[in-house]
Give the backbone structure.
Amino acid sequence: MAGTAGSESGLVGVEPAFMRLQHAFTRYLRDPACVAPPAGLPADRLAVYGNAVYANVERFMRDNFPRVCELYADEDWQALMRDYLARHRSDTPLFAELLAEFLAYLEDERDVATDPPYLRELAHFDWLENAIAIDETALDAIACRADGDLLDDRLVVNPVHRLVRYRWPVHALGPGVRPAAPPPRATVLLAFRDRADAFGVLDLNDVAALLFERIRGPEVRPARAVLTELAAELAHPDLAVVVHGGQQLLERWQARDVILGFVPDG
């Protein structure tokens, strides 16, 4: 009996042959240029699987990171995708979470001198649009009054939003806009989804960002009180100018569904 028990304990941690084959197969699929194929498997069938894995990942990332894809020539984009497949170990089976996995790869594993300096922030901006799009909050179901006073009534702010600060003006980058250095002022973006399910983004200055942060809660206060507070903090000589500027911002935000309406009476 003692000999039997010892024999069984010796098998602990031994990987079955079929699992060794599976792991060798997946290692090859992830990096066929550097990893030898498993012995005994037909090369043409391996190629079919390898091409399918790469094509699915490449198409998914191209669709969800279109701004990042625009940064690269085709062969450089393909090299980026190959590097991602070879280096990054993703634990999630959910497609929506693969976007965050790509961000983690860029942040922790990608280190290529020729990459644009704004690559990570631009990728985050692509991710942000997707995160806003898949938020299932039903804006039309949020209780609010349509009519009210933007300065003196309590506001209902669109909950489907993210207020994000970047070093680079990621929303303005494009084929003809490739800055070599970040601007002196950080870019503060308010990304949101409107009632028509369209993605929107507003470029806010520091004062507008403070106003938005304070009207969105958690304590709901009338905007006039917030603007009066901001004028004092900024030592602005004319409160009326601050209030008027704030009202203009609120009107634009209401027109864009950043402000949905007013807290219902009672």
About this structure: Residues 20 and 188 are 50 Å apart (CA to CA). DSSP finds ten helices and five strands in the chain.
